[in-house]
Design brief:
disordered C terminus; NAD/diacylglycerol_kinase_sf; Lipid_Phosphate_FormReg; 10 helices; Diacylglycerol_kinase_cat_dom; 2 domains; Tumour Suppressor Smad4; alpha+beta; Rossmann fold; nine-stranded antiparallel sheet; four-stranded parallel sheet
Length: 354
């Protein structure tokens, strides 16, 4: 088995000591031939994998976070082409069996995608699990989301989450680490700003079964491709409990950020309402829509947009879609269930330094 290992040296937990633990595990897999390449600038991983097929490598292993994974997916699948209905046009898009299968060793700050596939969060533990999967050549096909001409694996949207990620990125550029406490601090300030001047997002969505959603002037809306995902660093969030890599996009939104119901809705996003005991307070201003095939998001003025935890700039119109069986990944057969978290565990993760 020929493996291309793509490493992002700037990811949170990547260092020489880690490589001394994970490389021997992969080399011990019988029949493995491995090539290692490091990324040196944004979207470098995308350039490295562009045009590669299974004739070149059987698997591509991303050693990094969700941003590295997103780059590799976009590099392998290429630009998205949409038809008149907003669905992904068949075109010349390569089929999953023609592409290298994707695997991930998590070294980012959140690692949402790999955890949703059922891997442990520890990179060393995840490598041992991956080694067993490589030995059995155990893969599965999953759905992916698209936004305009690009792909995403975890989530995407306008509103508070995009604003938080943009401001955390600026803090990282100044040398500050992206700890859960920093995410929380930025999120609180962003929430207060959003209450004063909400983005006003119009949503039109159509589900696989033909059901439709139309909503105007929502202050927060995003689409997720899996469950759970994350809003504050590594803290898991369950917005659409039925969502998975095997169906369309799940949409979650709030119609009002003000008052008690708006605050409760934000607590839900932070993972504080893990048993959903406050649902009665939030039902009136919470929107959940599952198995969406196409989504159109429009704002009155350009707003920040994020995809897979990366700030993508400002837009006033974005088209999303879901693509069934878009890519093949190495994954355990039974993903880990959503993690029940106590208040003590949430507090511990908030103050943990990555």
């Amino acid at each position: 088995m020929r493996i291309l290992l793509i490493c992002n040296p700037n990811s949170t937990s990547q260092n020489e000591g880690l490589f001394r633990q994970i490389i021997p595990v992969l080399r011990d897999v019988e029949g493995v031939e491995m090539l290692v390449k490091n990324t040196h600038y944004p979207r470098h991983a995308e350039e490295i994998v562009s045009g590669l097929t299974r004739d070149d490598f059987d698997a591509i292993v991303a050693v990094g976070g969700d941003g590295t994974v997103a780059e590799i997916i976009n590099g392998m699948l290429g630009p998205v082409e949409l038809d008149e209905d907003g669905k992904v046009a068949p075109g010349d898009r390569p089929q999953p069996e023609q592409l290298p299968a994707l695997a991930i060793i998590p070294t980012g700050s959140a690692n949402v995608f790999v955890r949703a596939l059922g891997f442990p969060a520890s990179p060393v533990e995840a490598t041992h699990v991956l080694a067993r999967l490589l030995e059995r050549n155990q893969t599965r096909k999953i759905c992916l989301g698209t936004w305009n001409e690009r792909w995403f694996a975890v989530n995407a949207g306008f509103g508070l989450d995009a604003d938080v990620l943009a401001r955390v990125d600026r803090a990282r550029e100044k040398g500050f680490s992206a700890t859960p406490l920093r995410y929380l601090s930025v999120a609180v300030r962003g929430y207060l700003r959003a209450r004063r001047t909400p983005p006003q997002i119009t949503v039109e969505a159509r589900a696989m079964n033909g059901k439709e959603l139309k909503m105007k002037d929502a202050p927060l809306i995003f689409a997720s491709n899996t469950n759970p995902w994350t809003f504050l660093g590594p803290l898991p969030v369950v917005t659409n409990p039925e969502n998975s890599f095997s169906q369309g996009l799940g949409l979650f939104g709030l119609t009002d950020l003000g008052g008690v119901t708006g605050l409760v809705g934000m607590l839900h996003l932070a993972g504080a309402d893990k048993r959903r005991l406050l649902n009665k307070l939030t039902t009136a201003n919470t929107v959940e829509f599952d198995d969406a095939e196409t989504v159109t998001l429009t704002t009155r003025e350009p707003q920040r947009f994020q995809a897979d935890g990366e700030s993508e700039g400002k837009f006033d119109h974005v088209r999303l879609s879901s693509v069934v069986d878009a890519i093949e990944v190495f994954a355990p057969r039974d993903p880990e269930p959503p993690h029940e978290r106590s208040a003590k565990q949430i507090l511990r993760d908030l103050i943990r330094i990555n």
